[in-house]
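CNDP1 dipeptidase
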Amino acid sequence: SPQLPDGQDLPLPPVILGELKKDAHNPTVCFYGHVDVQPAKKEDGWKTDPYTLTEINGLYLVIRNLYGRGATDNKGPVLAWINAVETFKTLKLAMPVNFKFVIEGMEEAGSLGLEKLLEEENQGFFSDVDYIVISDNLWLSNKKPALTYGSRGDACFFVEVK
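Structure:
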């Protein structure tokens, strides 16, 4: 566990593991995201308080822009998966995959403790996972989202999206 400057041990925050009801006919996809952020001060160029999520109207009052530390890295993507599940449930649609979630709070510090948890849960929580989606990415511009298709130690491939 990390230490404070005075040498006191700081306990790691819990990692949230979640799953929804399973359908044996569907593959299981595990979605990873984190909710911790890098430090920020208003003097760094923020127009609003970086730790207060602020909604500012976009074009034609239809698009809503959310500003706040972690809105894109990585709280927004985590919430997007949760909203996707909510949409399927609201519309009473069968989900095409089984959902599992791993949400942590130490990614910005190197994911301290995550490797140990993965090893401990390899034969438990993760034993039926077919695919993993790492939704810790960013938009390259207002019109170009990043599509993460590989990671260290994984097989990589090229995908063209139009």
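The beta strands are 16-19, 28-34, 54-57, 64-67, 98-104, 131-134, 139-141, 144-145.
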